[in-house]
Amino acid sequence: AEEELAAKKAEEELAAKKAEEELAAKKAEEELAAKKAEEELAAKRAAEEMAEKKRAEELVAQQAEAAREAARRAEEEAAQAAAAAQAVAAVVEEVVAAEA
């Protein structure tokens, strides 16, 4: 009877130890999964920030291109206005010379 009791006690201790080990393994697994999830979230955030930065850079490039185009058009218009002013001045000179 004592031997049976001792064997049963040893069996229970073994079962308890096994349960503790399983619990520890499960806890480690959960911590690993949580850490992996955190890393994935951090990677996703970094990717989103990079995409946002890229979009911002593209927007700035588009705005710069639009500004260059506007400056080019203004330059063309100024050149046309100067040419028109020269043409008017030439006509005025001809009229003044003809009257003299």
Provide structural commentary.
The mean pLDDT is 96. By secondary structure, the chain is mainly α. The longest helix is centred in the middle third of the chain and has 98 residues, at 2-99. It has one domain (1-74). It contains one helix and no strands. The protein is rod-shaped, with a radius of gyration of 43 Å. It has one helix spanning 2-99. It starts with a helix and ends with a helix. Helix content is 98%, strand content 0%.
Question: What's the domain count?
Answer: 1
| Total beta strand runs | 0
Helical run tally: 1
Q: What integer value in Å does the Rg equal?
A: 43 Å
Amino- and carboxy-terminal Cα gap: 146 Å
Order of helices and strands: H
Average pLDDT confidence is: 96
How does the helix and strand content classify structurally? mainly alpha
Percentage of residues in helical conformation: over 70%
Strand content: under 5%
Low-confidence stretches: none
What general outline do the C-alpha atoms trace? rod-shaped
Largest sheet report: none
Task: Give short descriptive properties of this protein.
100 residues, single chain
Topology:
Blueprint: H1 2-99
Describe, in short, the structure shown.
The protein is mainly alpha-helical and 100 residues long. It contains 1 helix and no strands.
